[in-house]
Amino acid sequence: MTSARAISTPALIGLTALVASAIAAYGYAEFGGWNAEGAGAAARYTARFAFPIFVLAWSASATATLWPGSWRSVLLRRRRAIGLSFAAAHGVHLGALLIAVLLFAAQPSTKTVYGGGFGYVMIALMALTSNDWSVRKLGPRNWKALHTFSALTIAVIFAVSYLGRLEDKPWLAIPTLSLLGLAVLLKLAAWMKKRTLRVAAA
Ligand code: HEM
Prior knowledge:
mainly alpha, binds protoporphyrin IX containing FE, single chain, 9 helices
C-alpha cells in the first residue's frame, strides 16, 4: 500500500510510458524487427496495455463509493495519476499506430480514423484538464461533464474495438469486454447507492 502512495505522479506517468514503449519494442522483436507485422503488433499490444489502466481510472470512484477504505481509497486519491498514466500509455499507442500507418502503409478503416481520432481529442482534453487550475477555470460541474463524456467515449471505442474482435480473437475479446462490463456495473451500483443515500438524507 505505501508504494502506491509513495510514487509521484510524474514518476508513474514516466514509468507507464517506459513500459508501453518496451511493449511496443517487444511487438517489433516478435515479428523480426522493423517491419509491417512488427508495427501492427506494436499498435495492438500498446492498446492492450493501456486498456486495464483506463478501466482502473474509470472505475476508481465507483469502487471507493461501494467499498470505502483501504486500497479503494488510495485508488480514488491517485485517480488523476492513473488517468494521466493511461493517457501516456495511449500516447505510445498513437506513436505506434502512426508508424504502422505512415511508414508501413497500414490502412485503418475510416471508422477507426474518425472514431479513434475523436477518441484522441477526448484523451488530450482530459489530460490537459487533469489539474486543479482547470477544475477552477471550468467550474466543477463543467469539468465533471467533460470528463464523464470523454471517459465514456473512450469506453465505447474500446468496446467497439473488442466487439469487432469477438469472432477472430474470442480469447481476447471476452475478458476485455467482461472487464468493461464489470466497470459499467460498478458505476451503476455506485450511482444507485449514492441516490439511495441522498433520498434517505432528504
Ligand atoms: C486515429 C486514431 C487511431 C488509429 C488510426 C488506430 C489504429 C490502430 C491500429 C493500426 C491497430 C492495430 C490493428 C491490428 O493490427 O489488429 C489498433 C489497435 C487497437 N486500437 Fe487503435 N487506433 C486509433 C485510436 C484508438 C483509440 C482512441 C483507442 C481506444 C480508446 C484504440 C484502441 C485500440 C484497440 C483496443 C486495439 C486492439 C488491440 C488488441 O488487439 O488488443 N485505438 N489501432
